[in-house]
Amino acid sequence: MSLTHTLETFFVPKLHRVIEFLTSQGITMAGNLIYGFLCVRLLPISEYAKFAVVFGVLGTITVLMDISFSGTLLPLVGERIDDRRLIADYVASLRQLAHWLYLVMAPATILVYPFLVRKQQWSWRVVAAMVAILLIASWCARVSGAYGAVLIVRRDRGSWYRAQMVSSLGTLALLGIVWAAHALSAFSAILINVAGIVYVALSYFFRARRLLGTKGNPSIEKRKAIVHLALPNMPNAIFYALQGPISLFLITLFGHTTAVASVGALSRLGQVFVLFSQMTPLLIEPYFAKLPAQRLKRNYLGVISIEVAFCLLVTGLAHIYPQLFLWVLGHNYSGLRFEVLLMIASSSISYLSGILWVIHCSRRFVYWWNGMAVITLTLAVQAFFIWKVDLSTVRAVLTMNLWTVYVALLINIFTGIYGFTRGPREIVGPAVIATGSDYA
User: Fold this and answer.
1) Which residues contact 27 (CB under 8 A, 6 or more apart)?
2) Residue range 113-149, pLDDT digits in tens
3) First to last CA, the chain
4) Angstrom distance (rounded) from CA 280 to CA 247
5) I need a surface site. Which of 112, 218, 423, 428 has the fewest CB within 10 A?
6) 264 φ, ψ to 5°?
């Protein structure tokens, strides 16, 4: 089979889904990326540091307030999507669990956040305002997660996409208005973004109420079912909630304001890969899930080769023409030439590792030791850097991040080799299980 025919077989049947994604979620993500880059360029370094820390911490709190609970709604409801009373009861039970988590996370935020930013010389009024914003925004993000899941279960993806798109483009427009009025500051940029979060939460809440048309009642049985289903994913959810912005957390804890802003700004460049990562489940996962075993290895190597070439191209551009990336960030960060390379290299490796993980999951190359190895070695690398390296500089923190994602990539490569050699993980039931020799 020719390469051209293989590419046509892979891409053409999925074009309508790609177009749907780009005209809905793609627009939302692009708006969010532009918003972030404009804040990097328009805000002074000291102001952008505040913006970066608030939203770095908010992302972690949002995940810790959910810990995979919202994701259980769809599998628990299953085919009973027309049973509105059942869905409403599960949502009520989710809401009750969220209340309990909030009672834990709110005091933890009030205590931990001032400690995290203690070296930044921000006044107590500024820190108190940040904590208040975090408590409000994290609650609204929790509402979005629970009630947004109702829209997914009820197959109202149009409303789900629309709320995010309006929020993204609306906040972008508000940012332009505030900037034109010469009123842009860290807190105005933060509050505009929080307004978008509140809008999405309210949109999902009222739409979910209309879709369900009934009030649910929480129960011990449904809470237990939710926790039981989410429990295996909780360690990974907690781990990645803390690992996502680890570079920003460490530089905030050990470094000065300029370094905090620099890491936050460079992290925006890494988010460009998010758009490609979001398309992975749309294109790559279903393709490999249905691929005959005899064609797996050739297509696996072909796709990985293309992704490696893409990552090398982007990283090579960052090495040869770092000014292209620094121009996006603005003149405040023009001296971070080598740091740009470190960030793009780390993001490329992380993206490639994510591609491997998705393919391996689609073929059941999933083993108990894989996740534990990633967590253990990641923590070991970070412990070594915290112990031996001065993490008050941007370069040191980004170097630690590079080694961390490199270790994860090596484990995913080894997982692929193990999967092709030993075969996929067996599943319970009468399914036909392919052996290792089928993937040779």
Assistant:
1) 165, 168, 169
2) 999 998 888 999 999 999 999 999 999 988 888 888 7
3) 18
4) 25
5) 428
6) -60, -40
